[in-house]
Design a protein that fits this description.
Shape: globular
Low-confidence stretches: 198-205, 214-221, 635-643
CATH topology of the largest domain: Rossmann fold
Strand content: 15-25%
CATH superfamily of the largest domain: Thiamin diphosphate (ThDP)-binding fold, Pyr/PP domains
Number of strands: 19
Distance between the termini: 84 Å
Strand order of the largest sheet: 9-8-10-11-13-12-17
Helix content: 40-55%
Structural class: alpha/beta
CATH architecture of the largest domain: 3-Layer(aba) Sandwich
Number of domains: 3
Mean pLDDT: 88
Radius of gyration: 27 Å
Number of helices: 26
CATH class of the largest domain: Alpha Beta
Length: about 650
């Protein structure tokens, strides 16, 4: 059998295929997904579930002209294969390769770089209104594909309310697979389940499909009548659909794995005026039985290969427990000891490794869905009545709750603990997911205390300290193994850094998990006869100004290392404190993430690229010492020597 995928150079090639060939192409797409999953972690189950939907979309619309927004963007792998990128598909998520999310720099078929959930309907409506203003005679269709997990985002309903009022032509495809990363939660999920499972409507849907199949011309008056009749009966049956009350014509549910049926429905909805919501039912992991049976595990699985129909993980060398696991264990210990401690996550139970807490202490575990703003405001309510809530959300997603962190938590000075997982560089997920900005956005908030554990030994004491502190606390940590630096462990005290050693040639100040890397750099320098000290900052706010400014003032060179944005980050805080104290900071060098978005790649590759690995840090220290020696030797270039 001739392979079809290598012949698909653009969506125009899809339209030349027969229905049977499209089915074959779907099989080939899934095989490519399996081959990718054998080489690196990738979003797997979600992409298996949208193969037919992707093919139906591209054979029903012309997204060279029409507009397509994916929400969330991690379900675009099949889309990338059929939009001219198949020859590079196996580079997905590798440094220099294809991004695991839509990327306009790669293709005209990627409208926006979408890595967060919930914004697709808003941007799609903006595209629609912009086209209507600028190109009123050039009709283009605008389509947003939204997963049912993302549908819990409040922004979705804000946008639908606006779209319903404007009555603009807009198609929202609700991709309903009963999942976000973990099984979806909440009243909307139950409503969608009732829609799909209502016995009377299921029978009605079958009859409508039979009648549609007998109609040679899509969009004729009879079909429109049937659709309207179906909608009316359904609205009466279910007591008025939420979507229809928002001004959307609701159609579905439709089998999301039947390409020809999807094509018919896409042709039909193009005839309607105003916003339409097409409810498409898919199976996450479809076509690969292990993923279909366990879509949570196979959301982004470790590399594996297949043997006799079974999945065999590709073994990796053993690594130390991650910061995520260490934090989870510390939280579980505190929850066992203190019945007032509760934990909240936003559809990230698996990523934050909270399953043991969910199983053991389910009455104090809350998964609110992809609703970060709600999660933080909910925590504020818990704290106000005497609970000790923890909000465990990735750094990049905590940004979505910034107003609630300000208004409901910091302004009220409530004892809410924010755990910012995935702080710093997250590797293959790329710029939408790097947790680069948390220190910059948290530092300015009054009442906020910000900590960053240097290693595994810091984690437990910091979690315990945060839960007894009378005010809001944020703890940030990376997606990385939690190493342990050998030293006498100092207790965690408010605003106190940990001085591991002083050095005659300079001092490294490590912010957070850069501690182990800085320790290795100090060892490399010592091997060359260079004596550098090491400070574990621990607190980003408040700073240990006595310790840190002593290093700035007295050390021949001070190098500050942080895995976060340099602009407004930890190093900036040190420089601000030096300025306020009148301390000369001219011998301070800051290493961190520059003022740019960092592309995807392996975490180790990105750290080396930014000069944040041990070898690069040691080299920076050597260069700074050399510069200091040259400056000291030439009084004309050293104002201190001239004094």
């Amino acid at each position: 059998m001739v392979r079809l995928l290598p012949t698909i150079h653009s969506p125009a090639d899809l339209k030349k295929l027969t229905p049977k060939e499209l089915d074959q192409l779907a099989v080939e797409v899934r095989e490519e997904l399996c081959q990718l999953a054998a080489t690196r972690t990738a979003h797997f189950a979600s992409n298996l579930g949208v193969v037919e939907l992707t093919l139906a979309l591209h054979t029903s619309f012309d997204f060279g002209r029409d507009r397509l927004i994916w929400d969330t963007g991690h379900q675009v792998y099949a889309h990338k294969m059929v939009t001219g990128r198949f020859d590079r598909f196996q580079t997905m998520r590798a440094k220099g390769g294809l991004m695991g999310y839509p990327n306009p720099a790669e293709s005209e078929y990627d409208m926006l770089m979408t890595g967060h959930a919930g914004c697709s309907v808003s941007t799609a409506l903006g595209l629609r209104c912009g086209d209507d203003q600028l190109r009123p005679d050039d009709r283009r269709y605008v389509v947003a594909v939204v997963g049912d997990g993302a549908f819990s985002c409040g922004t979705i309903f804000e946008a639908m309310n606006n779209a319903g009022g404007l009555k603009k032509n807009l198609l929202v495809v609700l991709n309903d697979n009963k999942m976000s990363i973990c099984p979806r939660v909440g009243g909307l999920a139950e409503s969608l389940d009732r829609l799909r499972m209502a016995t009377f409507y299921t029978g009605l849907k079958t009859e409508v499909q039979k009648m549609l199949a007998r109609m040679p011309v899509i969009g004729d008056p009879v079909e429109r009548f049937i659709s309207q009749m179906k909608d009316a009966i359904k609205a009466g049956l279910l007591g008025g659909m939420l979507f229809e009350n928002l001004g959307f014509r609701y159609i579905g549910p439709v089998d999301g794995h039947n390409i020809r049926q999807l094509q018919k429905y896409f042709a039909m909805v193009r005839q309607f005026q105003g916003p339409v919501l097409l409810h498409v039912v898919t199976e996450k992991g479809h076509g690969f039985q292990p993923a279909a049976e366990d879509p949570t595990t196979f959301h982004s699985p470790a590399p594996f290969h297949r043997e006799n129909g079974t999945v065999v993980p590709i073994r990796k060398s053993a690594t130390q427990p991650s910061f995520t696991q260490r934090v989870r264990d510390a939280v579980l210990d505190r929850m066992r000891a203190d019945p007032t401690v509760a934990i909240i996550t936003a559809a990230m139970c698996q990523g934050t490794m909270l399953e043991p807490i969910r199983e053991e202490l389910q009455n104090r575990f809350f998964d609110v869905g992809i609703c970060e703003s709600h999660a933080v405001a909910f925590a504020a309510g818990l704290a106000k009545v005497g609970m000790r809530p923890i909000v465990d959300i990735y750094s990049t997603f905590m940004q979505r709750a910034y107003d609630q962190i300000f208004q409901e938590v910091a302004l009220q000075n409530l004892p809410v603990v924010l755990l910012l997982d995935r702080a710093g560089l997250v590797g293959p997920d790329g710029p939408t997911h790097h947790g680069a900005f948390d220190l910059t956005y948290l530092r300015p908030l009054p009442n906020m205390t910000v900590l960053a554990p240097g290693d595994a030994a810091d984690v437990g004491p910091m979690v315990a300290w945060a839960l007894q502190h009378d005010g809001p606390v944020a703890i940030r940590y990376p997606k990385a193994p939690a190493e342990t630096v050998d030293r006498p462990i100092a207790p965690v005290e408010l605003g106190r850094a940990e001085t591991i050693r002083w050095g005659a040639d300079g001092v490294l100040i490590a912010c957070g998990a850069t501690l182990a890397t800085c320790d290795e750099a100090v060892r490399r320098l010592a091997a060359d006869g260079i004596d550098f000290g090491l400070i574990n900052a621990r607190f980003v706010k408040p700073l240990d100004t006595a310790t840190l400014l002593r290093a700035v003032a007295d050390a021949p060179r001070t190098v500050i290392v942080e895995e976060g944005a340099l602009m407004g980050g930890f190093g900036s805080a040190v420089l601000e404190s030096a300025s306020l104290a009148g301390v000369d900071a001219g011998r301070v060098t800051r290493l961190g993430i520059p003022d740019q978005f960092i592309e995807h790649g392996a975490r180790a590759e990105l750290l080396a690229q930014l000069g944040l690995d041990a070898q690069s840090i040691a080299e920076t220290c050597r260069n700074e010492i050399a510069t200091t020696c040259q400056t000291t030797a030439d009084p004309r270039s050293n104002p201190h020597a001239a004094q």
